[in-house]
Amino acid sequence: MPPIPEENILSINIKTYGSFVKLPINHLAGHTVISIDVLRSSSCIVWGLVNGASKIIPVDDLGSAVSIASRMGDCVLAGERGAVLIPGFDIGNSPAEYTEARVSGKAVVISTTNGTGAICKSESASNVLIGSMLNCTAVAKRAVELGNDVILMCAGTGGEFSADDIYAAGAIASAIQTLTDAELCDLTRVSCLVYDRWKEDRTELSKTKHYKRLVSLGLESDINFCLTRDLTDIVPEYKNGVIEL
Ligand code: MLT
Which residue from 38, 42, 80, 209 has its CB within 8 A of the most atoms of ligand 1, so it is best to mutate? Predict the structure, then answer.
């Protein structure tokens, strides 16, 4: 990736929310929100677009996802509840399902337990970027280029923070700090420490709730994939109800 021109490098504030339910939706104007649900929906969204999906439409509730998909006709209906594929849906929430053969050239309508609701809730921000480990450095760089204060919005699980999202938020916040001066809120500071401490050894991360839930469902390969850093430099953006490149 080419370096950011000197004149575009500013000091920015980075605030992290551990769960999207706490997001101050009336105060997002002038901010770049980076929406993070590293295990697994933001990783699926990034990977679907890498594999040629024309757009991704995140939908909060299942009924609306089904009706949007049936109105659209030729699209892929994706999603999960409790990390499990929804009967009648084309694919679930595993990046391994977002193959070129499945999604290339198609719109994907996706509804997940926490991640898609989080994205929809951020729509009043100046920019909403989709962040994951897969595009960690690229999303950090894009946020710095935009120059706004940054909100790292972790989807969390059931209204509570989820350590995997905090880990990814720390990776993105650390990447931002390599590019510009940044003022960090307390949770951002802690997330950077978590990332630094766990990046070489996942023992502690593997004891956390959502990680263990996915392992219990036999989805360890999804975890390994979703926690792989910088596989792509795409930065999906959510605007007017649609995520595109
Ligand atoms: C969510 O939206 O809560 C997650 O992506 C759940 C999952 O891993 O399937």
Answer: 80
| DSSP notation for 126-157 | SEEEEE-STTHHHHHHHHHHH-SEEEEEE--B
Ligand 1 mean position to 134 CA, how many Å? 16
Contact 238, 122 (CB under 8 A): yes
pTM: predicted TM-score of the whole model, two decimal places: 0.95
Residue 10 pLDDT > 70: no
What does each C-alpha distance from 14 to 9, 109, 245 come to in angstroms? 15, 30, 23
CB of 133 within 8 A of CB of 229? yes
Q: What is the pLDDT of residues 85-118, one digit of tens each?
A: 999 999 999 999 999 999 999 999 999 999 999 9
| Residue of the CA atom closest to atom 9 of ligand 1 | 83
